[in-house]
Structure formats: C-alpha cells, structure tokens
Amino acid sequence: MQAVRDVPAPGATIGRPLRILVTNDDGVHAPGILALRKAMDHLGEVFVIAPGTNRSAIARGITIHDPLVVDEVEMADGHPAYSISGTPVDCVRLGALGLIGGPPDVVVSGANLGLNLGDDVTYSGTVAAALEGVMLGIPAIAVSQDALGGGSGPGHEYDFAAVTAFAARLAPLACAERFPRHVIFNVNGPGVPPGGLAGARVTRLGRRVYDDSLVLEGTEGSSRHFRIYGEPMSHDMQPGTDLSAIDDNLLSVTPLHFDLTDLEGMDRMARWEIDSLLASVAGVS
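-> structure tokens emitted (285 positions)
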C-alpha cells in the first residue's frame, strides 16, 4: 500500500491525544466496527456509539418521535460501547451533545460490511454519520470494505486490516487546521487478500447502474408484497472514479462535502428574470 506522507503524529495538530468517536450502521456488534476501533486505539481515547441493530441504507434518518434508548454494552474484546435505539446520525448527535463528556475531535464511521461508492453514498448510513460530523464542525471519515471476492453483509469474509490502518493514518490529517472542516474522507477498500492491495488513489464519485425491478412476491388478503432491490449492480467504466479504483484493486479515498448547491444553475437562473416570475404568482395561494 502506498505510504501516506506528511502525516502528523497522533494528536500533534491539537496538542494532545485525539478523542475519537467510532460509529457505524451495521450495528454495535458488527465485526467492522470492532476492527476500526482497534485500529484507532493508539491515537487516543476512543468512544463507540452505534445502533443496537443493523440500520444499513438508513441514510440521514433521525429519530424524532421517540426517545433514544441508550444501553452500555461490551464489544467482543470487552471494550465498553454505547448501543442505541436510533440511527447512525443519532449516534453522532449523542456524542457531540455530551454522551461522551464532550464533543469528539474526529468522527470515524465504519468499517462498513460492503462498499459505499458512487451513487450509493446517498443511501449509506455509514457516510451519513460522517457527514453529520462535518455538519457539526467535526472532522470525519467514512470507512467501507468489500468482502473477499466481492459482496457485502453478514456471512461474507472480510479483511479489514488495510482499510482500517489507512483510516487511522488519515485521522490526524483530518484534524489538521489546514484541512477544510466541511469535507469528509470516504474510504473504500477492495476485497483482496492480504498483500493484494495495489495501492491507494484519490478519486471522484462514479455512477452506479442499478438493475432494479418490481417483483410481486405474494399476497396476503388485500396486501401485496413487492421486492424492488437486491439485483447485482454495475457501473460506468470511467477512469478516475472510486468504482474504477476498486476494479484496479486500489484503496479509494474520495473527499465529499455537503454543499449540494448547483452554482452553474444559479448563474443560469439569474438570467430567467426570477423577479418577474415571482410577480406573476404574487397573491396566488
């Protein structure tokens, strides 16, 4: 794996060991969060707040109608963790608002059981947790890993060593004053065995091609049961994307931000005489 150059020592950018919040969307007892937390241990004090159950593809969902239930649990190696009834975004909010005694220096989300590439990032609870960090002014990293030989979810075999070690090297960089606070690192590792990683590449988001279809799986009284998702996905073969990096057995690092504003669109709309359009609907209710 290519070296990350000019990486400051743990805590060097803020003068003390880092306070790190680790979360995920696969659940507090998933193997990826355990591997990620272990990789972060040497950087400072690591706190784990994660959903008690799998909340994959929840995106930026939050809990607003029910109280959040928090239980103190132990991870597989005995490390304490908080298991919550809510979503990955809820986890980051709880950490930032005082559950761990004060806001963290950095949020690290993952390691997800499966990749979060291209258009997938808009559905991902893993990426959403990291984005919540930067929304709150906290540096953040999202980490995802393909299963060996491809695939995702429980029942597959994963090697998290390279992607979590890489994330641990990135954490001090994300905390550096020169790094923009509105940007997250979205890190994805290919499903290759130890020694099979060809390097790392800074990438842009690619485009997924979904082959979804509406399938009626059965009926029960007046109810019909449909399935939409679950078919294998493909993608556009474009160089420089996160998808192409994974195809090349490279670790992909994509800087993402939350500003969805289309600046070129604003310029085009400025020529539409918006004031006259507004005047035409004045008084319409």
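The mean pLDDT is 90.
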